[in-house]
Amino acid sequence: MKTKHAVTLFEALSSGTRLDLFRLLIRHAPAGLVAGDIARLLNVSASNLSFHLKALAHAGLITMEKEGKFLRYRAEIPLMLDLIAYLTSECCSGNPAQCSNYREASRVEPAVLPDHG
Description:
Elements: H1 3-12, H2 16-27, E1 33-34, H3 35-42, H4 46-59, E2 62-67, E3 70-75, H5 77-88, H6 96-105
Antiparallel strand pairs: 1-3, 2-3
Helix pairs in contact: 2-4
């Protein structure tokens, strides 16, 4: 991943509403959610939701699929994992033991961030 692409993704996630929306779609993967359910769960108006969905879709962080008269939205989890890899790929380069110390000091559950060192 290029830095410019990572910046675009971070900009798309820089709103509290968009971050909550993206996390909600991650939680409901792989099925995703229709817009009405998203609006209800996040307690946002349809017009406000539309604005945020458009920003995330433009960045490629979510996809939408027509289901009859509804649109179903899904998080692009492979892209999220690419972004995480971009952030962590050079951490403690050449010294996996040091990364293990950071992992232990973090609040991340071991199952979420397994130790491959």
